[in-house]
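Hi Y.,

Following your request, here is the sequence exactly as I used it, all 46 residues.
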Amino acid sequence: MIAQDVGSAIRGQERGDIYWGSGAEAGAIAGVTKTQARFYVLLPKS
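Below is the corresponding structure, written out as tokens. Let me know if you'd prefer a different format.
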């Protein structure tokens, strides 16, 4: 995941947005996808 989306629906550090593609079918899937998830940040060693 790359933090690129800064839209109005993404607020705070606890929100993530998954891109489902474009078109009516992708919009229908995205509109009902609401669930909890875990995000892990991988950082390079110094």
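The chain has a mean pLDDT of 77.

Thanks again,
Q.
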